[in-house]
Amino acid sequence: MSCQLHQFLAPSSIAIIGASKDPTKRGYQALKYLIADNFAGGIYPIHPREPEILGIPAYPSVSAVPAEIDLGLVCTPAKTVPAIIEECGKKGIKGVVVLAGGFSEAGPEGARLEAEGLRIARELGVRIIGPNTSGVFNLHSRMNLVGMPNVKSGGLGIVSQSGNMALSIVNDAAPGGPLGFSTYVGVGNQVDVRFNEYLQYFGEDDNTKVPILYVEGFKQGRTFLEVAREVTQKKPVVVYKSGRTEAGQASAKSHTGALAGSYEMAVDLLRQAGVTVARQADYIVPIAVALRLLTAPSSNRVAILADGGGHATIGADSLIETGSVLATLAEETRANLAKVLPPAASLANPVDVAGGTDANPGVLADCASILLQDENVDALLVVGLFGGYKLRFAESLGPIENETAIRLGALLRRFGKPIILQSVYAPFRTEALEALRSSGIPVHSSIEVAVACLAALIDYGCAKRRNVNDPPTACNEAPAAASAIIAQCRASGRNVLFEYETMDLLKVYGVPMQPYMVARREEDLAEVAAAFASQPAAMKIISHDILHKTEAGGVKLTLRREETMRQAYRDIMESAHAFKHNADIEGVLVTPMAQQGVEIIIGVSKNPIFGPVMMFGLGGTFVEVLKDVVFRAIPLSRSDAAVMLDGIKAKKILDGVRGTNPVDREALVDLMMRISALVQAHPEISEIDLNPVFAHDDGYTVVDARMILSSPLE
Amino acid sequence: MSCQLHQFLAPSSIAIIGASKDPTKRGYQALKYLIADNFAGGIYPIHPREPEILGIPAYPSVSAVPAEIDLGLVCTPAKTVPAIIEECGKKGIKGVVVLAGGFSEAGPEGARLEAEGLRIARELGVRIIGPNTSGVFNLHSRMNLVGMPNVKSGGLGIVSQSGNMALSIVNDAAPGGPLGFSTYVGVGNQVDVRFNEYLQYFGEDDNTKVPILYVEGFKQGRTFLEVAREVTQKKPVVVYKSGRTEAGQASAKSHTGALAGSYEMAVDLLRQAGVTVARQADYIVPIAVALRLLTAPSSNRVAILADGGGHATIGADSLIETGSVLATLAEETRANLAKVLPPAASLANPVDVAGGTDANPGVLADCASILLQDENVDALLVVGLFGGYKLRFAESLGPIENETAIRLGALLRRFGKPIILQSVYAPFRTEALEALRSSGIPVHSSIEVAVACLAALIDYGCAKRRNVNDPPTACNEAPAAASAIIAQCRASGRNVLFEYETMDLLKVYGVPMQPYMVARREEDLAEVAAAFASQPAAMKIISHDILHKTEAGGVKLTLRREETMRQAYRDIMESAHAFKHNADIEGVLVTPMAQQGVEIIIGVSKNPIFGPVMMFGLGGTFVEVLKDVVFRAIPLSRSDAAVMLDGIKAKKILDGVRGTNPVDREALVDLMMRISALVQAHPEISEIDLNPVFAHDDGYTVVDARMILSSPLE
């Protein structure tokens, strides 16, 4: 189903409710821009008394307008808004943009007004943008209701939770930039239309080639992810998410009242859905421009072409740090480079021409062509002086530089591989650099920015391929045996499954679990000891009154022989009762001691914004302190799970350190997929904690497993 | 003693050796610039045949010049250079700049030529800049021997291992930037004059206010650190160190043949010496400009003043991530802000004016004044639309904006606290923003860049104060008891101290050590067991043939009772002999098992470039994999040691996690200071490894200590 917003974000007619003759008022400015920009549709100023404003007939109310109206721009104060929405609804207006602040962001009275407005809007089928928004524009419809003058129309869309950030984005792209904008929406308080719906609109809007979103807090994160997954198959989506630190989150909250949520989790989930996340605000526009102009490559092997060692080195450093790799050049490539470059040139990647282009910058295009022909090269980064040879060396090189720029543009189109150029002369906007820009090659003065753009292209290319080739596996049918275990837990009045129930449930989903025995009385340990005669055992308390078993002295390890087990049993009972008087104790769970391995943690929790999310990390205090964990929304694809393993900073530990073997990645991916299926099939599960799992070079052992159901009221 | 370079980097007379009439030649260009720039001293073109070049009398050789010459610019090929240096030396020329490549960077023959040139230069007292350099300029002397046209003269100095990077720096500062340059030197192969000497020159050169260095590899790192420590007391020093990744290091090596060394270590040592390290190349110029224009604050409490919530949030996020803090505003400050701002404004830091400046940008200066008066505020970051109110809101605001810019400049001078402004309108260079720039306030379009500049100012202020208040403690006298232990080790033909020798040595330096006993035969264990009756013991092999005790099965833990100890002894002997047949075994060392604590590592190694360096980190594979360690050059100050504890990413572990107490930081600082003293007093020690040390909430236990002497030949 196509998005409702088209009906009024590209409107045929607009009412300006609260139109004004005062040039400092938004109700004047909006009107002025509509007229100045030759808005093609009907314009209806609404004013209680004025018969005309800026030469256009005005009406006392929308109901008095003798024509259909698609969009209402509401410029009046908060307290008037519910009544206006009602009138708009009765008139059949499809959407309103409410500029006024003083709603939920301002306190309880505002929140009441906001809710009232929403109730009426829902009743009458009116959609609300805002309130507390800086406005909207759709430059392809010549509709500028935000009062930013001189914005060039083009393919970048903006949805922003901050009007000033929208201005930032427009201005960053402005001075001589190649690209303009399509639609801007300030989301304001998101009382009705939210990021997910705006993104859907941008996905369907042919005028928008790259939507850019500035987000402080999502309200319907799960839906957003679903929409993003679809839209990113068609076009790249750039998100800057603010609120990385507690201070930033506090600031964002005071700004829009939106809960920011964990930054790193949001970034992980967005990237899973194919979204390009800009981690610096000043990278938003360069990245969006690169995504707009260039084709995302299918892999991450980059060639660097430099006319100086310093830039080659900085380029290599920056590139490696983004996770890309320096392409290994084919023998033939090196041989061909050798034909056009002097002997001192470095033919390994980075290629340093060592003065070989000083007298003829055209050699740079020769080299670029040779590099782009190499199948091992997915993208090309050119760094150094290009665009300034004329200034640096000789006036006479100017025409050759210009021609080289055109040749580079032709190479871009011929090979379809991204080319980005960094030039020391970028601030001078020389003729050659302008020619390069015109031919679609981004030019930056900063190597770091150039590399960030390449990295974004590579990430996008990989994510898009991953999501189309390996969509997450749906699993909505629960095996009866699994449902029975949950039902039994519920029936006994618990939300927390006993560990053996969790183990049984995991087994139903094909997770290999250790054998276990339950001893309900000390006497049972005779049989247990006989069963575990050949290996040491672990004993853990079973009690719904005791959640943290170790703290309660409820865990004993490396037990051998019946007498030791009996002693352990008695110790556990004593500690447990000391920990909690009258604790209701079922007994103890006895399992074999697990074979040691790399300690990992797999957790699932239900995020209020994003729904069920899986977390993966290594065990131990370091991970806790360094927050070295990675998140993915459930359901997962196998690729998602594999990417998670590589997503932690300390991933080398999985490859084996100090002489240990690498862990069995396939087995861990398999475990994650089974957990993902389990969580999907049982929406009543609110939390899973496999902590720790010992990862071995062949399989894994779940050492402790915990599962919690949502309380029946939820 | 003042630096020799002044004699020829601000020369009274220059010979151009290899002067030319061909405009593409350096020997022509240099001459042309000297003439065009009105170089005030003598200019002597040297050419075998030409009687004049560019209207200036030429001479067949420097010896033919009938005047004194300070500096020779050598434009001839590599093979001619040794003879030319000889002639220059005989003429009494103090320094030569050798442009040609083809020396040590090109292979063995070049290296021979380079060594030959150096030998002659040393003999005749000529200093060499280069070879393989892009040249030098000293704009205050109107000497431009590098052929970069139109460089503005000013206070920034450049020393660079890449000519293109020097161009980058000049160009980044160029377009409308407030600052120009003093001296540039391309260091080339650093055969004679090296970074340390250039830095000394810049330290003494009054025309240079901020030296900027692009470094691929230091050759005399230790001396550089010493010079930097002095220079940074007078003026800030900015270094960009390349070669962060292996790929970058390989590229740097192929470029200048210099060994890059560990990036993180170099950064740590530079920062210890007070140097400002730019981690991105595109931050070099903004940071240098901020250091030039603003006074470094004495602490890190920053106020953010924003006219929009989005920028406030991004500012807070970025600031916190650099390690600065949001200043807690005084009650009075908040009260005063409330007087000038509307009720919706956020008076906590970040201060968001919430539209309170839209009609009058002057209110921004009112707020700035209130914030700067607050003693809790060390620096001010203004973010948002300032400089564009005229464009955004009303033409009539233009004059008020301009006046506000002047008021902000006055506040900068009045309070002496740094102010940096980020403006959405920075790309437009509006009148108000130019006024702001003229009054010495840096303006950026990127919040991240603005914050990086503030962070650099804060870091510099802190480092300068730390280094002047708490210089490293010198310790050059070795106690006789300590020297005796080392002598005994040497006498027995070993470079590796036995663990008990290391323990004894550490004890001499006041490091509290565990008691130990040595058992040379199994029979000795009767006495040992008696002595350790009350606590479990650890047993480790003593053998100069076995360096890695654990791998050789040479360590047994938690031993109680004589029989267990005897068994452990026999096991150790058996394993050791299996590990190395005929291993020469002294016996075993028995110590009490250490009380558990936070596992830390303190190491010392002699870096070939930087000399003795201490490393601090936590124990375990995570630290290894994540390289979460910190380095400082020895000797340390107490502040250095304290900063090291805070320098690791996982520092929170030292504060206590999961209910444990914080470690005893004072004790660890004390331990580091004792190790620092020990290393200074015994230069023959090449390596120390205390691994692990258990840090307790009261003191620490050195669990394993290893010390290696340099081999007698070193």
Q: Give the beta-strand count of chain A.
A: 30
The number of domains of chain A is 5
CATH superfamily of the largest domain in chain A: Succinyl-CoA synthetase domains
**Structural class, judged by helices and strands of chain A?**
alpha/beta
pLDDT below 50 for ≥5 consecutive residues: which ranges of chain A?
Answer: 256-260
Our count of helices of chain A gives: 24
Q: Greatest contact pair?
A: A-B, 87 and 87 residues
Q: Which CATH first-tier class of the largest domain in chain A would you pick?
A: Alpha Beta
Largest sheet of chain A at a glance? 7 strands, mixed
Terminus-to-terminus distance of chain A:
30 Å
Strand content of chain A: 15-25%
What is the gyration radius of chain A calculated from CA atoms?
31 Å
Task: Report the CATH architecture of the largest domain in chain A.
Answer: 3-Layer(aba) Sandwich
As laid out across the biggest beta sheet of chain A, the strand order is: 9-8-11-10-12-13-14
CATH topology of the largest domain in chain A: Rossmann fold
Helix content of chain A: 25-40%
Give the quaternary arrangement of the chains: homodimer
Global outline of chain A: flat
Account of the protein in words:
Chain A is α/β, with parallel strands linked by helices and 714 residues long. Chain A folds into 5 domains: 1-132, Rossmann fold, CATH 3.40.50; 150-278, Succinyl-CoA synthetase domains (Rossmann fold, 3-Layer(aba) Sandwich), CATH 3.40.50; 294-469, Rossmann fold (3-Layer(aba) Sandwich), CATH 3.40.50; 472-512 and 595-714, ATP-grasp fold, B domain (D-amino Acid Aminotransferase, Chain A, domain 1), CATH 3.30.470; 515-593, ATP-grasp fold, A domain (Dna Ligase, domain 1). Helices cover 39% and strands 20% of the residues of chain A. Chain A is built from 24 helices and 30 strands. Chain A has a 7-stranded mixed β-sheet, sandwiched between helices. In chain A, strand 6, helix 4 and strand 7 form a beta-alpha-beta unit. In chain A, helix 23 crosses helix 24 (665-681). The longest helix of chain A has 23 residues, at 447-469. The model of chain A is unreliable at 256-260 (pLDDT under 50). At the A-B interface, helix 5, helix 8, helix 11, helix 17 and helix 22 of A face helix 5, helix 8, helix 11, helix 17 and helix 22 of B.
